Structures are given as C-alpha cells and as structure tokens.
C-alpha cells in the first residue's frame, strides 16, 4: 500500500524543474512516492511528446498531460488519481515562438498553469529581449485567468530572483539576467496585478533557495537562490495553509540542480 501524506480537506501542488526527465526519472518517481503531491508540475522535461514516460507515472497512480520539445524545455502537469483537463498550451502573441514553456489545466477545482520562463542570458541581447517579451505575454494570460475569478496558481521556474534576499550573494549574480532590474520589474508587475508569491510572503526575510548550480561546489556551500515560484490568485491565496521547499532532494545522487517547491491549500 502506497503511503499518502496529504490530509483530508487539503491539496498539495508542487513544482519540480527536473532537468531532464529521462536522466532523473528514478529521482522523480522517488520524490512523488515519498511526498505524494496532489498535483506535480514539471519543467525542463527535455523530451519530445512521444518520449514522455507517462506509463511510469500511471504505475504509481498519476495521470499526466505534457508539452514536450526535443532536447530542451518542456513542461508537464501530473495529478494523483485524476486526469488534468487541458485548458491551454503555449502563450499567444508570438506565433513564431516554438518553445515548449507553458501548459495550463483544470484539476481538483484549481486552474493550474505550469511555466518554464526563459533564462535570458547572455544579457543584453536577443535572449534577454525574448525573456522580457515572454514575461509580458505571461502577464497577459494571467490577467485573462484573473478575469475568470477562478482559484488559480501559476507555478514553476520563473528564472527571476525577485529580491537581493533571495540569493546567497547579490554581487555574484549582479550581471545575470535573473537579477536585472527589467526582469525584477516584470515579476513585480505580476504581483501588483493581484497575485501572491507564496514562498516570498511566508519568508519575507529571504534565505530560501530553490536552485544550486552544479559548478563550484554551490550545493555543498549552500550558494543558492530562489527562482522557482508559486503565484496564487486572490481566490486561492486565502486557502494557503503552508509552503516550502523539498531541499533534501537536491542532495541526492544524480539530482536535479533545482529542489521541488510546494504549497498546501485548503480543499
């Protein structure tokens, strides 16, 4: 009998940039079975649609929808014992954009959008310009969701360090696209539209990391930063019970460079 840790009347929605679903499938299955989120949003699955290991998730009770891309990007939504009902994949406004970075579904009475926002490096340059355009397109979609007045969460890898307290060393990252004023301003505009940054609200002093680079012993020295975020609509923010980071999973063998983030909500 599989262990379920979720409480009656509560749902847990989590996000995990897995950094290659085939390479880290054992770690992903391990995390799912140990923590048992109601919904798991994945980023950087790095596989074409036909290569997505849906059958492996079905074996442990999860059903999935996904938006893949060969070797890069890719997002997915998994639900424990339920079929996510797809609402949208991709963002409008730039028809030539073929990156697989956005998927949205209704599941357990919540609108769930899973995102993998562009990194934007090197900056300045076309990749940073694309990042900012993508963020504006995301804002447009989030405004559309807000007008529906549904309980909603936009969760995933935002590739934005919102504040100096969200990074181990602001000077070390000062030239990075993740910390540029334009990136931060675009993120702040999402919050000003009425969305709540769950981790940021619950940890106003910062010091909570979700990413540690593979280089320079970043994990061993705890040189991390917070770029994985869960933004809640007003209809969902009132139901927030707890949020956190499954930091220990970053320290396991052949782990992703991200740790899962999660929110617990009253059902």
From TrEMBL:
Q: Which residues form the Endonuclease/exonuclease/phosphatase domain?
A: 14-258
The name under which this protein is listed is: Exodeoxyribonuclease III
Q: Which family does it belong to?
A: Belongs to the DNA repair enzymes AP/ExoA family.
Q: What class of enzyme is it?
A: hydrolase
* EC number assigned by the record: 3.1.11.2
A GO molecular function held by the record: double-stranded DNA 3'-5' DNA exonuclease activity
Q: PANTHER family from the entry?
A: EXODEOXYRIBONUCLEASE III
Cofactor annotation: Mg(2+)
Q: Which gene encodes it?
A: xth
Q: Pfam families recorded for this chain?
A: Exo_endo_phos
What stretches pass through the bilayer?
none
Q: Does the keyword Transcription regulation apply?
A: no
Keywords noted in UniProt: Hydrolase, Magnesium, Metal-binding
What CDD domains is this protein classified in? ExoIII-like_AP-endo
């Amino acid at each position: 009998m599989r262990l379920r840790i979720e409480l009656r009347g509560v749902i847990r929605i989590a996000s995990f940039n897995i950094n290659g679903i085939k390479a880290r499938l054992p770690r992903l299955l391990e995390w799912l079975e140990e923590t048992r989120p109601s919904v798991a949003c994945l980023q950087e699955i790095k596989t074409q649609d036909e290569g997505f290991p849906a059958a492996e998730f079905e074996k442990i009770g999860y059903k999935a929808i996904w938006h893949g891309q060969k070797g890069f990007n890719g997002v997915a939504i998994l639900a424990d014992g339920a079929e996510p009902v797809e609402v949208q994949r991709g963002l409008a406004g730039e028809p030539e954009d073929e990156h697989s970075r956005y998927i949205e579904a209704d599941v357990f009475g919540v609108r769930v959008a899973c995102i993998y926002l562009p990194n934007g490096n090197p900056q300045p340059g076309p990749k940073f310009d694309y990042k900012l355009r993508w963020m504006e397109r995301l804002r447009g979609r989030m405004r559309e969701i807000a007008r529906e007045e549904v309980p909603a969460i936009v969760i995933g890898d935002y590739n934005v360090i919102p504040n100096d307290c969200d990074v181990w060393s602001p000077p070390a990252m000062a030239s990075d696209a993740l910390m540029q004023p334009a990136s931060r301003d675009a993120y702040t505009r999402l919050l000003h539209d009425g969305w709540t940054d769950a981790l940021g609200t619950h940890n106003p002093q910062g010091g909570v990391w979700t990413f540690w680079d593979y280089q320079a012993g970043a994990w061993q020295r705890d040189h991390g930063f917070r770029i994985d975020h869960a933004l809640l609509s007003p209809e969902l923010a009132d139901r927030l019970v707890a949020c956190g980071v499954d930091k220990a999973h970053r320290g396991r063998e052949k782990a992703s460079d991200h740790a899962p983030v999660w929110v617990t909500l009253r059902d």
